[in-house]
């Protein structure tokens, strides 16, 4: 009965989106269908579902996924925690496994290279304190989430203790090291009294080596094994054998081996931490972009306050050479702003009243005043930092191979070390010699190199991308973009600049030109489409008056509809007007000619009569043809997708050098095109910038957003080209290739190292100290190799 109770679990899960009893009933029926769920009771008033289920049969994520499929959402929160005490991939895997089994945790990822855990959880079922307690129960330290702009020194305390332990070990083990070397080179016998050896080795073993014992204890307590187990076991065997030998009078001592092993491994850990810090220096550079002080105007008087205290609506003064503290809109003054560290754009950008400015960018010349619009975590800089940190904490597909190997690595090595001891002992090497060969096997094996092989390369790669102005949402996309074989490019804002302008128009003589433009401009004023904004802008330039319109409605992929006075107006594509029975004979010749020239045609009608035909021209990007050509040379298939009519689409595609075109495509049809290509076995990347691209960006294997596009497109994308340049697409591909190459090099080195050194240790080629040195250098070499990615900075 007790076992039955342990299996059964009851959770009260908050569910958003339920509006009526039918919704609650639908959730109940849907969840009960999952095998292993015993009962479900949904309370509409509280918006919660009480679920009784078998925890061995049903995963919490299965319940969340089912709720989403039914059409509702389980609200979630995210947190990022800094973890202290991880020594190898087994540690990270153990914490990740623990977190993912907690009721209420949707997803947890632990990154050894950054020492961070990224957790998505459902508030109300579990809270952050419980997550931290779960990590601490495994024997690791946890630091709470930190503000992205106040993260300096958060690892300092741990780093200081590491240095103290290492320096103590170095000081105490130096005489033992000198004794060992003197005997090796044969320059006389230099032997320290065994009791003094014990006095020197004991603090090294139990003070400097304490983190290894602590880690091993918690590792074994949770039913797994880590690198700490190998180090603690190997050094303890050497130390305690020497201690027993001293007391028993056997005369064989290995105090120098245990002390030197701990010293060398601590040195390796220090070098590893330093290299890992360099791998994440892109984050530190971004954090340093926000200034500490901001000048704000209060009642016309300039006042200095800490930058983090700036509020939305504050008027902020920026002087020449200063960094802009928060995001905002210029209200007074003109300047040139350097946004290179955020967007990768090397040329300063002119700023005038009405233009947006980005917090963290540098004001090069002239003073100006701007109104703060986004502060704190809503700033672009803060969002970029969060995106890069989350990406660096994610796992690339190749990392899963290392995780699987690390899970069985330590038990296998312990078994091999026992076999080594028995083999040497049976062959007559003696107990002491057989024991030292066993110790060598334990300390030469290195699961750290396997654990660091992928995440360090991913961290450096994502950091390099951030420097260049493009961002990956995770390591899987940094790796994934390199596997893409088909690129689907949206036309407007991707192949073209996305800033169309009116190139010509015709209004039948029976209608007043000024009045017609006044109505068109007023209607398009509410539209977010680039064509609508262009029409509104043209009307404003003509100086036409604003008209009062009613019942505005955007018709995705078709145009707009609104009411003016007693008439209903339709502005948009030919299909929209034809559906309303409008005769287009009068403007057919204009339409045909403009479309042949690659111009986009917009029609306006009311009361069944054509009121205007307008030609808009969107200039193709300067680099579009060159980028398409380079993509083709890489062996990639390129296609353009657009809502424009076939004639216009073909003309633009021809200019860009694209052969395959999907034209007259509605927003939902873009998704279907992506699905169709994926069913054909293609690995598809969608590149776009608008609201209508968001579903296709989400559906593609890799969604790539042009950073000058809409927020919803950027939120839906996996890769963001923040500088708005199509050429960054080539840079992202090259970075992916370089990073994947480094990951493979690291994994090959980690596997080869263990495949070579373990047999050498088994057959007596290595001594314990040589084995410990090799182990320490192996993980450092992996991190160093990842850092060599920075050499390709100019080739990206």
Structural class: alpha+beta
**Beta content:** 15-25%
Low-pLDDT regions? 1-6, 150-154
Give the distance, in angstroms, between the N- and C-terminal Cα atoms: 63 Å
Describe the largest sheet: 7 strands, mixed
Question: Mean pLDDT, as a whole number?
Answer: 83
Number of helices: 29
The rough form would be described as elongated
> Looking across the biggest beta sheet, what order are the strands in?
17-29-28-27-18-25-26
Radius of gyration: 33 Å
Helix content: 40-55%
Tally the beta strands: 29
In words, what does this structure look like?
This protein has 796 residues and is of the alpha+beta class. It has 29 helices and 29 strands. The strands form six sheets. The chain has a seven-stranded mixed sheet, sandwiched between helices. A six-stranded antiparallel sheet has the order 9-8-10-16-11-14, with no helix packed on it. It has a six-stranded antiparallel sheet with strand order 19-24-23-22-21-20. Strand 21 (559-564) and strand 22 form a beta hairpin. Helix 2 (21-32) crosses helix 3 and helix 6 runs antiparallel to helix 7. The longest helix has 35 residues, at 728-762. The protein starts with a helix and ends in a 9-residue tail after the last helix. The model is unreliable at 1-6 and 150-154 (pLDDT under 50).
């Amino acid at each position: 009965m007790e076992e039955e109770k342990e299996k059964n679990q009851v959770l009260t899960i908050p569910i958003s989106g339920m509006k009526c009893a039918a919704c609650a009933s639908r959730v109940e029926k849907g969840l009960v269908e999952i095998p292993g769920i015993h009962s479900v009771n949904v309370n509409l008033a509280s918006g919660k579902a009480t679920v009784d289920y078998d925890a061995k049969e049903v995963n919490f994520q299965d319940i969340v996924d089912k709720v989403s499929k039914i059409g509702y959402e389980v609200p979630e929160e995210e947190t990022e925690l800094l973890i202290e005490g991880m020594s190898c991939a087994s540690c990270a895997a153990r914490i990740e496994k623990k977190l993912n089994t907690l009721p209420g945790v949707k997803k947890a990822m632990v990154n050894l290279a950054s020492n961070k855990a990224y957790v998505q959880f459902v508030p109300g079922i579990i809270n952050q304190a419980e997550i931290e307690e779960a990590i601490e129960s495994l024997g690791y330290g946890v630091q709470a989430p930190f503000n992205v702009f106040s993260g300096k020194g958060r690892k300092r305390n741990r780093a200081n203790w590491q240095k103290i332990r290492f320096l103590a070990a170095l000081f105490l083990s130096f005489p033992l090291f000198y004794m060992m070397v003197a005997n090796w080179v044969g320059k006389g016998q230099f032997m320290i009294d065994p009791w003094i050896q014990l006095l020197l080795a004991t603090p090294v073993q139990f003070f400097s080596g304490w983190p290894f014992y602590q880690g091993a204890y918690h590792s074994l307590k949770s039913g797994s094994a880590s690198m700490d187990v190998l180090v603690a076991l190997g050094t303890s065997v050497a130390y305690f054998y020497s201690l027993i030998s001293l007391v028993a009078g056997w005369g064989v001592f290995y105090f120098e081996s245990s002390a030197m092993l701990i010293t060398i491994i601590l040195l390796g850990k220090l070098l590893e931490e330093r290299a890992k810090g360099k791998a994440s220096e892109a984050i530190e550079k971004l954090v340093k972009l926000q200034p500490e002080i901001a000048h704000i105007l209060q009642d016309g008087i300039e006042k200095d306050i800490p930058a983090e205290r700036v509020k939305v609506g504050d008027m902020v003064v920026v002087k020449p050479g200063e960094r802009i503290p928060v995001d905002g809109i210029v209200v007074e003054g003109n300047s040139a702003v350097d946004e290179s560290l955020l967007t990768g754009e090397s040329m300063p950008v002119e700023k005038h009243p009405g233009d947006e400015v980005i917090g963290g960018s540098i004001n090069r010349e002239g003073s100006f005043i701007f109104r703060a619009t986004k502060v704190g975590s809503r700033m672009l800089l803060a969002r970029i930092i969060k995106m890069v940190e989350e990406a660096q904490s994610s796992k690339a597909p190749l990392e899963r191979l290392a995780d699987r190997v690390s899970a069985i690595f330590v038990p296998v090595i312990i078994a091999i070390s026992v076999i080594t001891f028995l083999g040497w002992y049976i062959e007559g090497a003696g107990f002491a010699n057989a024991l030292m060969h066993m110790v060598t096997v334990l300390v030469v094996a290195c699961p750290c190199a396997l654990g660091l092989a992928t995440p360090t390369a991913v961290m450096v790669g994502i950091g390099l991308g951030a420097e260049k102005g493009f961002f990956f949402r995770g390591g899987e996309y940094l790796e994934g973009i390199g596997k893409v074989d088909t690129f689907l490019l949206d036309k407007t804002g991707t192949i073209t600049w996305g800033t169309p302008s009116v190139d010509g128009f015709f209004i039948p003589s029976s209608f007043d030109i000024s009045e017609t433009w006044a109505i068109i401009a007023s209607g398009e004023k509410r539209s977010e489409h680039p064509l609508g904004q262009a029409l509104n802008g043209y009307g404003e330039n003509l100086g036409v008056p604003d008209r009062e319109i009613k019942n505005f409605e955007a018709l995705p992929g078709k145009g707009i509809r609104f009411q003016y006075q007693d008439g209903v107006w339709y502005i948009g594509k030919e299909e929209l007007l034809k559906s309303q029975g409008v005769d287009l004979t009068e403007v057919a010749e204009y339409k045909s000619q403009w479309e042949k020239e690659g111009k986009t045609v917009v029609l306006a009608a009311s009361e069944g009569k054509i009121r205007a035909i307008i030609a808009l021209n969107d200039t193709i990007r300067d680099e579009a043809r060159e980028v398409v050509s380079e993509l083709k040379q890489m062996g990639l298939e390129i296609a353009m997708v657009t809502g424009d009519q076939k004639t216009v689409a073909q003309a633009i595609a021809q200019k860009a050098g694209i052969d395959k075109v999907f034209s007259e495509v509605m927003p939902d049809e873009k998704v279907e095109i992506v699905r169709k290509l994926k069913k054909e076995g293609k690995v598809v990347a969608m590149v776009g910038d608008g609201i209508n691209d968001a579903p296709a960006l989400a559906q593609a294997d890799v969604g790539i957003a042009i950073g000058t596009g809409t927020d919803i497109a950027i939120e839906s994308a996996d890769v963001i080209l923040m500088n708005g340049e199509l050429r960054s697409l080539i840079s992202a591909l090259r970075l992916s290739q370089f990073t994947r190459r480094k990951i493979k090099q690291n994994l090959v080195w980690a596997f080869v190292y263990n495949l070579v050194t373990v047999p050498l240790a088994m057959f007596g080629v290595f001594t314990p100290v040589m084995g410990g040195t090799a182990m320490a250098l192996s993980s450092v070499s992996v991190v160093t190799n990842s850092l060599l990615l920075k050499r390709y900075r100019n080739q990206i």
